[in-house]
Amino acid sequence: MGKKSNLSGLHRFLPQLEEFLDKSTASLPEQSLAPHTKKRKTGTLSLVSTTYDASALVPHYRTADDVPENLQKYFSQRKRYFSLYEQGCLLDEEGWYSVTPESIALQIADRCRCDTILDPFCGVGGNAIAFAKTCEHVIALDISPVRLALARHNAAIYGVADRIEFILADYISFANAYLSRPHPTRKIDVVFLSPPWGGPGYLSPSDNLASSDEHQDELEAHPEYSLSSIKPIHGADLFRLTKRISNNIAYFLPKNTSLNEVSALIERNKTAVTDDEPHMIEVEEEWMGSKLKALTCYFGGLVAGQEHLF
Question: What's the chain's average pLDDT?
Answer without folding.
Answer: 82
